[in-house]
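Backbone-to-sequence.
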């Protein structure tokens, strides 16, 4: 068990976390390769390495009588396609993201070669996955019994596109003993299915999981949060989608705060498409996949979006706690997110690339950093950073100019062969003119670190 430090404790949405770090919600996504017992051991390993919370992914529950009633009320037909036994096997596929510590991630179905199997274009309907919780109970029970007492348990709740569906699952999660509810209205996998895309364009919300379509629908999301908060007594939060832009995210977060949410998590995976193989007639670079599908992405490419979301909440949505998740690869990134206002942080890609015990090394770094910098608590670190968050017009730009180090300069000429009119190469020397305004472009592009900005006052 990782050593406990009082300075690392945080109050997150009214719940005490022993440390501010953890791992984002992970469903049992490795298919047949991951048993319930193995999954429980992995989650418990997170806590042993120092995670301040455990998040159990994809909690879903839908009683059959409720499904029948809802179908009748809505007049909907059965929207999903349930394949015959053995016709297809759920599969996840991973591909490194353009050389960065990120990833492409596809949820699909394996089938016999050259056979196009029937796949639910709306995703699994409640009839097909309404008993998911029943299958997860063995490892949920094991985690609850064996986890450290001071580590709270978060239920990552998924549901059909109906407020009552979220209420049913959330009440069940509270009944089971979860400490917090994270409404997962941001899963990218369901938002990239043709049926859900078509339904969104028609302004409809069928009785299926629509994923991040819900998370970027302000009025609908507000109603979901309001209904859930009325029915449970534990803190409720919302997992945002990175598909929500700025300043729209401010409006969404204010709505859910006013509806009773205590926290937001930013963010789930985003949506993109793998680069086509330009040497194979545009086929997908995703291995063993026919066609080039819209797909989820995560890891390092998300970090800029997460910074924006977290800072926006800190600056414009007081009273709403935030947990930063996405592209946080180092302990320095953790501290950056805390200084932008996050009370807690989650990681996935960092664990994929560095292993679970990386959490322990990160905590050691954070403790050492806080002692060296004179911080006595995570909240002190957070408040120190928040006061520096300003809008563009509130920032003050100081006079600066570029300066070249002739020892480091290799005369590659990149800085001079560029869009700047203040820098040139003359007689084998880089010259910086008096018209330099200190934009920093040359500093950014220099491959040798030979340029820097200095005060021009």
């Amino acid at each position: 068990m990782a050593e406990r430090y009082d300075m690392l404790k945080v109050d997150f949405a009214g719940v005490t976390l022993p440390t501010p770090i953890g791992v984002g919600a992970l469903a049992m996504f490795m298919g047949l390769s991951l048993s319930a017992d193995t999954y429980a051991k992995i989650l418990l390993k997170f806590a042993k390495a120092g995670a301040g919370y455990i998040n159990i992914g994809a909690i879903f529950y839908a009683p059959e009588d409720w499904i029948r009633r809802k179908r009748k009320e809505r007049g909907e037909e059965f929207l999903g396609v349930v394949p015959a036994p053995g016709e297809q096997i759920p599969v996840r596929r991973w591909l490194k993201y353009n050389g960065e510590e990120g990833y492409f991630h596809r949820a699909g179905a394996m089938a016999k070669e050259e056979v196009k199997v029937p796949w639910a274009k709306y995703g699994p309907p409640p009839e097909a996955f309404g008993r998911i919780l029943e299958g997860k109970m063995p490892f949920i029970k094991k985690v609850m019994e064996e986890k450290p007492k001071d580590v709270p348990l978060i239920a990552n709740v998924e549901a059909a596109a109906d407020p009552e569906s979220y209420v049913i699952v959330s009440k069940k999660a509270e009944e089971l003993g979860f400490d917090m509810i994270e409404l997962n209205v941001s899963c990218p996998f369901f938002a990239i299915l043709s049926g859900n895309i078509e339904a969104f364009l028609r302004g409809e919300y069928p009785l299926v999981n629509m994923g991040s379509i819900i998370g970027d629908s302000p009025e609908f999301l507000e109603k979901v949060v309001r209904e859930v908060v009325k029915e449970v007594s534990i803190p409720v939060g919302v997992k945002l989608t990175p598909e929500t832009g700025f300043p729209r995210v401010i409006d969404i977060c204010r709505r859910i705060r006013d509806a009773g949410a205590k926290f937001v998590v930013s963010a789930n995976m985003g949506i993109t498409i793998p680069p086509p193989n330009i040497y194979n007639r545009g086929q997908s670079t995703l291995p063993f996949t026919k066609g080039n599908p819209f797909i989820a992405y995560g890891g390092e490419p998300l970090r800029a979006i997460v910074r924006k979301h977290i800072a926006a909440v800190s600056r414009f949505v007081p009273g709403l706690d935030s947990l930063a998740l996405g592209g946080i690869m180092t302990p320095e990134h953790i501290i950056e997110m805390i200084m932008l206002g996050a009370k807690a942080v989650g990681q996935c890609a960092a664990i994929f690339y560095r292993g679970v015990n990386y959490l322990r090394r990160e905590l050691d770094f954070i403790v050492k950093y806080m002692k060296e910098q004179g911080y006595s608590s995570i909240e002190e670190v957070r408040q120190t950073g928040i006061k520096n968050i300003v809008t563009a017009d509130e920032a003050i730009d100081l006079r600066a100019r570029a300066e070249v180090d002739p020892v480091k300069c290799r005369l590659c000429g990149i800085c001079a062969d560029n869009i700047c009119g203040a820098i040139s190469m003359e007689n084998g020397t880089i010259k910086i003119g008096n018209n330099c305004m200190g934009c920093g472009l040359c500093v950014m592009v220099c491959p040798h670190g030979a340029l820097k900005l200095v005060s021009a006052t």
